[in-house]
Design brief:
Elements: H1 9-20, H2 27-47, E1 57-61, E2 67-69, H3 70-83, E3 89-94, E4 101-102, E5 112-120, E6 131-139, H4 149-152, E7 161-167, E8 171-176, E9 182-187, E10 192-197, E11 208-210, H5 221-231, E12 242-243, H6 249-259, E13 261-265, H7 281-294, E14 298-300, E15 320-323, H8 325-338, H9 340-350, H10 352-358
Parallel strand pairs: 3-5, 11-12, 11-13
Antiparallel strand pairs: 1-2, 3-4, 5-6, 6-7, 7-8, 8-9, 9-10, 13-15, 14-15
Bound molecules: 2,5-anhydro-1,6-di-O-phosphono-D-glucitol (AHG) and manganese (II) ion (2 copies).
The site of one manganese (II) ion has 4 residues, from strand 5.
Length: 359
């Protein structure tokens, strides 16, 4: 076995797959490597962002009506172009696109599905604060020759692999194929991701909670009680958890996974037509939820594990409590006890597809 210093991401993925599935064809391995390569290209651009004229907002809005940053578009294109022609994917879906992204007819279709948030926390780019990329990989389940919406709208439980890249003081790629969570740091001098964090586990004792406290006036009673509880967590005489909030989910999640804690982006009752909060189920919550569970943690919408939710549309949003499982379970408890009204409205939104099917 080589020393950790020599373990590149490619070698790690290959060896892990050989062990888990000796008969595997290696397609998933190659797909993860394609993503690692996209990450290096995006990392190069994010670190040069202040030098080239790529900073600032583009004039377009994405499907959520938010202003897209130029780097959003760049990262979106890089990931698409690195993966459209390889024959490994049958369809893709990105946070930045309204519809599924088909594989162009001239290229072969493969057996995997890629969902991604190309640049997470992009409002932080202009001020030189960490951003990230999030991805999830599913298997094709539709019967047709090409991929379909059905392939993308799968519950997180059937995910095959997930990961993220943090573009911070150094660039890190973290991934799981279901055998634990492994982290790699990019060595820019050789252009390789080198194993730096093997088999990451969320610490049992937490240090941090992360929430946008500026939204407090919209919070439900359950979330208010929960955050108060986090502030006094270990009882009288002990130190409360520290609050940390970068505003890039990937970076906030990454810190809490390594140091212990919980990230919270709740739903609220500010608008009863929109009780789901901000984050996206497919592009953010499911991939990170899978990683959290693989690291011994949990991810919930306040009611059930996010991995058990069946998405009914690409842009579905979801409340998110993610990190240390004791802290996530406590959130569920507070919401059960105090937020009956919100829960009823939220469940109707979440379970829309099931209601439609029953009609
Ligand atoms: P994105 O840049 O992909 O749109 O995601 C931004 C998300 C997430 O990264 C972050 O944690 C959250 O938005 C911050 O939202 P607030 O500014 O409302 O706290
Ligand atoms: Mn995002
Ligand atoms: Mn994004």
């Amino acid at each position: 076995m080589p020393s950790a210093a020599l373990m590149t991401i490619e070698r790690h993925i290959l060896e892990a797959q050989k062990e888990a599935a000796p008969q595997a064809t290696g397609v998933l391995t190659q797909l993860l490597y394609d993503i690692a390569l996209s990450a290096k290209i995006i990392a190069r651009e994010t670190t040069r962002a202040g030098l080239v004229n790529i900073l600032g907002s583009a004039d377009t809005k994405n499907v959520y009506g938010e202003q897209q940053q130029k780097l959003d578009i760049f990262a979106n294109d890089v990931i698409f172009k690195m993966n459209d022609h390889t024959g490994r994917l049958c369809v893709m879906a990105s946070e930045e696109n309204e519809d599924i992204i088909p594989i162009p007819e001239r290229f072969e279709c493969g057996k995997y599905v890629l969902v991604y948030d190309p640049l997470d926390g992009s409002s932080n780019v202009d001020v030189n604060v960490s951003v990230g990329t999030i991805f999830g990989i599913f298997r094709k389940i539709s019967n047709g020759p090409r991929g379909a919406l059905e392939d993308v709208l799968q519950a997180g439980r059937s995910i095959a692999a997930a990961g993220y890249i943090v573009y911070g003081p150094s660039t890190m790629m973290v991934y799981t194929v279901g055998d634990g969570v492994h982290g790699f740091t990019l060595d820019p001098s050789v252009g390789e991701f080198i194993l730096s964090h093997e088999n990451i586990k969320i610490p049992a004792k937490s240090k941090y909670y992360s929430v946008n406290q500026g939204n407090e006036k919209y919070w439900t009673p359950g979330v208010r009680h929960y955050v108060k509880w986090l502030q006094g967590i270990y009882g009288e005489g002990s130190k409360p958890l520290s609050q940390r909030y970068i505003g890039s989910l990937v970076a906030d999640f990454h810190r809490n996974m390594l140091n212990g804690g919980v990230y919270v982006y709740p739903g609220d009752l500010n608008d009863p037509n929109d009780p789901c909060g901000k984050l996206r189920l497919l592009f953010e919550a499911i991939p990170l939820g899978y990683i959290a569970e693989q690291a011994g943690g949990a991810a919930s919408d306040g009611d059930m594990p996010v991995l058990d939710i069946v998405p009914h549309k690409l842009q579905q949003r979801v409340p998110l409590f993610i990190g240390n499982s004791e802290l996530v379970n406590k959130a569920n408890q507070f919401i059960r006890d105090y937020d009956r009204e919100w829960l009823e409205i939220y469940r109707t939104h979440r379970d829309q597809q099931k209601l439609v099917n029953r009609e």
